[in-house]
Design brief:
seven-stranded mixed β-sheet, alpha/beta, 9 helices, 261 residues, three-stranded antiparallel β-sheet
């Protein structure tokens, strides 16, 4: 992942590299406009610049350390929620390039919130879409769709990789545990400074009967989902909600008054 800042006084935002072009020397990142900082970033026009763009940071997926032949023998399912489709795409693309065909579930609140589905369709063995309102694909959440594939459509998986909102990943891991499927979750949503110095992405893992402290930014972002204390992680992720709301309100007031972004 990379850390970006839109302005010199802006917050640090961790974003997964969604794609890249070595020949052009470019990378692709996906930004969802939610708060003040991200809204300023997406307002940039062609030729504009971010204040900082640092990376790559974190640890790569464990796939790159494995024998492609062994990977081709396993059955993978990727489950993405919302903008989680962005970090899912490069992993599925890499596996496709190494002859590994995987299934992908992409979920969103509605059809309008779906992203990168056409790109994923080109590299996934099967792409399944779910929407909370039923506007496209399966009517329901990603966990319900996963159970539908396994219980009613004869699908079998050896490993699940889930990336998306923390609460979604928690319920995906609870469901996969029922089937005994190894599950990996990505905790990039916890990150703040990306170097482990701030402690904002500290998390607790239940590893071999011990409580172990790790940092999502330097030890992750991917971890064994069954070891993650999701309730603690969700609580930590909500720590700055009040500050985010205040910054967003101030930004909206500035726009209403005709101020510069």
């Amino acid at each position: 992942f990379v850390i970006v800042r839109g302005t010199d006084d802006g917050e640090r935002i961790p974003l997964t590299i969604a794609d890249y072009d070595r020949e052009k020397g470019t990378v692709c990142i996906v930004i969802q406009a939610v708060g003040a900082s991200t809204r300023k970033m997406v307002a940039l026009e062609e030729g504009g610049a971010l204040a900082d763009f640092a990376g790559p940071l974190g640890q790569p997926s464990e796939f790159i350390h494995e024998d492609p032949e062994a990977l081709r023998a396993r059955r993978f399912l990727f489950i993405a929620g919302g903008v989680g489709a962005a970090p899912v795409y490069p992993q599925v693309k890499w596996l496709h390039e190494h002859g590994v065909q995987v299934d992908v579930i992409v979920g969103a609140r509605s059809r309008e919130m779906l992203i990168i589905t056409e790109e994923l369709r080109k590299v996934a063995g099967n792409l399944y879409i779910s929407t909370d309102d039923g506007s496209e694909g399966f009517h329901g959440n990603v966990t319900a769709l996963m159970k539908e594939l396994i219980d009613n459509r004869g699908k079998r998986y050896d490993e699940v990789v889930t990336i998306g909102p923390m609460i979604m990943m928690k319920f995906v891991s609870l469901a996969t545990r029922e089937y005994g499927i190894r599950t990996i979750a990505s905790l990039n949503t916890l990150m703040i400074d990306g170097t482990g110095m701030c402690g904002g992405c500290r998390l607790t893992l239940n590893h071999d009967g011990r409580r172990v402290t790790k940092f999502a930014c330097i030890d992750g972002p991917e971890f064994n989902a069954y070891e993650i204390d999701f309730d603690e992680a969700i609580s930590r992720g909500n720590a700055y909600k009040a500050f985010e709301r205040k910054a967003h309100e101030e930004f909206c007031n500035l726009l209403a008054q005709g101020g510069k972004q």
